[in-house]
Protein backbone atom coordinates (compact mmCIF):
# COMPACT_ATOMS: atom_id res chain seq x y z
CA UNK A 1 0.00 0.00 0.00
CA UNK A 2 1.37 3.39 -0.94
CA UNK A 3 1.51 5.90 1.90
CA UNK A 4 0.59 8.71 -0.49
CA UNK A 5 -2.85 7.13 -0.86
CA UNK A 6 -3.47 7.70 2.83
CA UNK A 7 -2.15 11.25 2.67
CA UNK A 8 -4.96 12.04 0.21
CA UNK A 9 -7.69 11.19 2.74
CA UNK A 10 -9.89 14.20 3.47
CA UNK A 11 -9.29 14.78 7.17
CA UNK A 12 -12.37 16.98 7.55
CA UNK A 13 -14.65 14.14 6.47
CA UNK A 14 -12.61 11.23 7.82
CA UNK A 15 -13.51 11.79 11.50
CA UNK A 16 -16.29 9.27 12.24
CA UNK A 17 -18.89 11.80 13.42
CA UNK A 18 -18.42 14.01 10.37
CA UNK A 19 -18.36 10.98 8.07
CA UNK A 20 -21.68 9.88 9.61
CA UNK A 21 -23.21 13.33 9.10
CA UNK A 22 -21.98 13.50 5.51
CA UNK A 23 -23.33 10.00 4.84
CA UNK A 24 -26.72 10.95 6.27
CA UNK A 25 -26.86 14.16 4.24
CA UNK A 26 -25.77 12.34 1.07
CA UNK A 27 -28.77 10.04 1.51
CA UNK A 28 -31.22 12.81 2.50
CA UNK A 29 -31.42 16.16 0.73
CA UNK A 30 -32.14 17.97 4.01
CA UNK A 31 -32.20 16.95 7.66
CA UNK A 32 -33.12 18.77 10.84
CA UNK A 33 -30.86 18.97 13.87
CA UNK A 34 -33.13 16.55 15.69
CA UNK A 35 -33.18 14.08 12.79
CA UNK A 36 -29.38 14.06 12.59
CA UNK A 37 -28.98 13.77 16.33
CA UNK A 38 -31.45 10.91 16.70
CA UNK A 39 -30.54 8.96 13.56
CA UNK A 40 -26.83 9.05 14.38
CA UNK A 41 -27.13 8.68 18.15
CA UNK A 42 -25.07 11.80 18.76
CA UNK A 43 -25.29 14.41 21.49
CA UNK A 44 -26.31 18.02 20.85
CA UNK A 45 -22.71 19.11 21.37
CA UNK A 46 -21.27 16.52 18.99
CA UNK A 47 -23.67 17.44 16.21
CA UNK A 48 -22.99 21.16 16.71
CA UNK A 49 -19.20 20.84 16.72
CA UNK A 50 -19.07 18.56 13.68
CA UNK A 51 -21.58 20.65 11.73
CA UNK A 52 -19.54 23.78 12.44
CA UNK A 53 -16.41 22.11 11.03
CA UNK A 54 -18.29 20.90 7.94
CA UNK A 55 -19.85 24.34 7.47
CA UNK A 56 -16.46 26.08 7.73
CA UNK A 57 -15.12 23.70 5.07
CA UNK A 58 -18.00 24.70 2.79
CA UNK A 59 -19.52 21.21 2.82
CA UNK A 60 -22.79 21.93 4.64
CA UNK A 61 -25.34 24.76 4.60
CA UNK A 62 -27.16 25.58 7.82
CA UNK A 63 -30.68 27.05 7.59
CA UNK A 64 -32.40 28.53 10.63
CA UNK A 65 -36.13 29.23 10.48
CA UNK A 66 -39.14 29.15 12.75
CA UNK A 67 -41.85 26.49 12.60
CA UNK A 68 -44.91 27.13 14.77
CA UNK A 69 -42.96 29.90 16.54
CA UNK A 70 -40.19 27.45 17.46
CA UNK A 71 -36.65 27.58 16.09
CA UNK A 72 -35.93 24.99 13.44
CA UNK A 73 -32.41 24.28 12.19
CA UNK A 74 -31.82 22.16 9.13
CA UNK A 75 -28.80 21.10 7.13
CA UNK A 76 -28.04 20.17 3.58
CA UNK A 77 -24.89 19.28 1.73
CA UNK A 78 -23.41 21.80 -0.71
CA UNK A 79 -22.27 20.86 -4.21
CA UNK A 80 -18.71 21.23 -2.93
CA UNK A 81 -19.55 18.92 -0.02
CA UNK A 82 -21.06 16.30 -2.31
CA UNK A 83 -18.01 16.40 -4.55
CA UNK A 84 -15.64 16.09 -1.56
CA UNK A 85 -17.70 13.23 -0.12
CA UNK A 86 -17.75 11.37 -3.45
CA UNK A 87 -13.97 11.79 -3.76
CA UNK A 88 -13.58 10.53 -0.19
CA UNK A 89 -15.69 7.43 -0.91
CA UNK A 90 -13.77 6.79 -4.14
CA UNK A 91 -10.48 6.93 -2.24
CA UNK A 92 -11.75 4.53 0.42
CA UNK A 93 -12.84 2.14 -2.33
CA UNK A 94 -9.34 2.38 -3.82
CA UNK A 95 -7.77 1.55 -0.44
CA UNK A 96 -10.02 -1.50 -0.08
CA UNK A 97 -9.29 -2.63 -3.64
CA UNK A 98 -5.53 -2.24 -3.16
CA UNK A 99 -5.66 -4.25 0.04
CA UNK A 100 -7.66 -7.03 -1.58
CA UNK A 101 -5.30 -7.12 -4.56
CA UNK A 102 -2.28 -7.48 -2.24
CA UNK A 103 -3.53 -10.56 -0.39
Task: Write up this protein.
The protein starts with a helix and ends with a helix. It contains 6 helices and 3 strands. The chain has helices spanning 3-7, 11-14, 16-27, 33-40, 44-56, 79-101, and strands at residues 31-32, 60-67, 70-77. The mean pLDDT is 93. It is an alpha+beta fold and 103 residues long. A hairpin with a 2-residue loop joins strand 2 (60-67) and strand 3. The chain has a 3-stranded antiparallel beta sheet with strand order 1-3-2. The protein has a single domain (3-97), classed as Arc Repressor Mutant, subunit A, CATH 1.10.10. The radius of gyration is 16 Å and the shape is elongated.
Which features characterize this protein?
three-stranded antiparallel beta sheet; Arc Repressor Mutant, subunit A; single chain; alpha+beta; 103 residues; 3 strands
Task: Please give a quick description of this structure.
The chain is α+β, with helices and mostly antiparallel strands. Helix content is 63%, strand content 17%. It has a single domain (3-97), classed as Winged helix-like DNA-binding domain superfamily/Winged helix DNA-binding domain (Arc Repressor Mutant, subunit A, Orthogonal Bundle).
One letter per element, helices H and strands E, the order comes to HHHEHHEEH
Q: Give the beta-strand count.
A: 3
**Computed Rg:** 16 Å
How many domain modules? 1
The percentage of residues in β strands lies in 15-25%
Distance between the termini: 11 Å
Amino acid sequence: MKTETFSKINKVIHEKGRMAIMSALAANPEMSFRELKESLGMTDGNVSVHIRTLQQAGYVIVSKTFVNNRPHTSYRMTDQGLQAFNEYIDLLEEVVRLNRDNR
